[in-house]
Amino acid sequence: MLNTAEILDQLARRRKNFSLSRDLYSDEGAYRADLEHIWYREWLFAVPACDIPKTGNHATLQVGAYPVVVVRGADGQIRAFHNVCRHRGQRLCPKQNGSSAKLVCPYHQWTYDLDGTLLFARDMGPDFDPSQFSLKPVECRVEGGMVFICLADDPPDFEPLGGFLRDYVGASDLSNAKVAFTSTIVENGNWKLVIENNRECYHCGGSHPSLCRSYSDNPLMTVMEGPNAASAEILAHWDRCDQAGLPARFVNDPGMQWRFARVPLLNNAESFTMSTKAAVKRRMGSIPWNDAGSLMFYHFPSSWHHFLPDHAIVFRLLPISATQTEVTSKWLVHKDAVEGVDYDLQKLTEVWLATNDEDRRVVEENQKGILSPAYEPGPYSPSQEQGVIHFVDWYVRRMMDRLSPRPAMAA
Ligand code: 3BY
Ligand code: FES
Ligand code: FE
């Protein structure tokens, strides 16, 4: 297991524009450092707010060692808490999704209000002060209908991401959406391999026959230079969106942690379906046309998303171990769309269920090859894998920043 100095050394010696060392994709020490310095410190996408639409609805997620619960309160507010009972530490809410008027611990029934206050604890004696035993809060922000959490006590600034979420994702009006389907899979690969694979479409032609009916594998769709620099087709799409007041132009974090861009699909395809036509009769939000393309949003380290005219798909990854990653996908549709009438669930989900499984296999084979003593880091394609380079550069910068010894404070 690598120690901090050895991890720093591998990060410092990595060859620019090449894949990382085997250890950084598989070693237990490197994995623990990723948790400590990335996963426990960054904002993480948790769920779309419409996953918990009503008071008492909650959703859980496991971030490394930390179980977290996200709850909709009686005031409509969404809050996040450590999902750990303040009595003897039972995991409070065991299910991925649940609903209850109060949060009741399954062990000895300590009962918490939806705002985390301890309301009731049986037979705790006259000196017991329940106000000392509220659930521990987790930082939580909701913008554009997307819930983000951060485990750090001093989270990084959420702006300007929040403003772009309001504008770009706001156009899909997730407050009037519902979750039509959730899929959770485990990929036997390091979380960084899952992101790297997502950040390029060099593999799409060879791996994704159904996605390639509607999604162009032209790397210009995935990597852009700026709001006024893209292919003629994308620029024309942005002009058209501008005229309709639909946020579309490429915008990115200078540090490349996140990016938004609305891109056209292939040959005027409407949606990620086998027919390339819309899967849902009712459009979401204020999107004016069926061929408005996909608003692609990614945010390191934990999510990428597609917002289409007729539905949206949000993807969340969470590390499970050095070589295992959970990927949860949720398909969102207008809240009044009726399954079997306005959409067919199979037609809505089949392309990305297949794509996720194809990506799982790619990632698992990638991990197996990397575990070989014969593996050595290989070069990324400058035209096809620019998005991967952005991610790896972001990761290495963050880790080196946070792992580097700080000069001692003056006494
Ligand atoms: O879903 C995505 O965002 C990425 C973009 C390129 C490959 N993959 C389909
Ligand atoms: Fe929760 Fe005992 S551990 S009530
Ligand atoms: Fe893929």
TrEMBL record:
Its cofactor is Fe cation. It holds the Pfam family Rieske. Residues 44-149 form the Rieske domain. InterPro entries: Rieske_2Fe-2S, Rieske_2Fe-2S_sf, Ring_hydroxy_dOase_asu_C_dom, Rng_hydr_dOase-A. One of its GO terms (molecular function) is oxidoreductase activity. Keywords: 2Fe-2S, Iron, Iron-sulfur, Metal-binding, Oxidoreductase. This is Rieske (2Fe-2S) protein.
